[in-house]
Amino acid sequence: MPDSLTVDVNRKRLHHVEVPDRFVTDESFVVDLVNRGESVHVHLHLDDALSQVATLEGGNHYVERGSTRSVEIDVAAVREPVTGKLKLVTGYGAEVAYVDVTVEPLAVEKEPVDVDEALGRPRRPEPGEEPLVERLRTLTADVGTLSIAGFGIFAIVLALGVGVVVDSAAVLLGVGVVIGGVLAALVLLTR
Fold this sequence. Notes:
The chain is of the alpha+beta class and about 190 residues long. It is built from 4 helices and 10 strands, in the order E-E-E-E-E-H-E-E-E-E-E-H-H-H.
C-alpha cells in the first residue's frame, strides 16, 4: 500500500490548507485531500526538482463538502535522495501551502545467502597428501635432492641435444628412455 500524505482543507476557515512541513517516501504515494467544510478546488503543483522524479494525475481537483479526494503521485526510482516542494493552492491563489517532499532511494532488502558451515573450516590435507608448494620447499631445502634434480635436468638436455645431432632410431629410443627415467626419478623425489 502506498504512503499517504494527509492534507486538511477548510478546517479553520474557508480555503484554509493545513499540511505537514515535510514528507519522506521511497515510492509512489497518495495525497489525501480531506475537506472539513464547503466544497473547494485544490490545485497541486510539483516544483522543478520534484517534477524530475515524480508526476501527478491532473493539477486541479474538486473536493466535495465533507469528503476526501485521493490524488496519486507516481515516483520514479532514484539513486540519490531528491527534495522538492509540493505546492497546494485553494481559493484561486488566496491560500498557498508547501510541503517539502523527499524521495529517497528504494530500500532493497537483500535476501540472505545460505552458506554451508563446511566453508568456514579450512580443508586439511589427507595424511600423506602434501600440497605441491610444500613438496617444492622440501626439495629446495635439501641440497642433495636439489643437486640430483639439477643433474636430471642436465641429463634431459644432453639427451635431447644428442637426439637432434645424431639421426638414428636407436639414439632416439635411448633419448626417450633417459627422459622417462629422469622424469620418473623427479616424481619419486617430490613424494
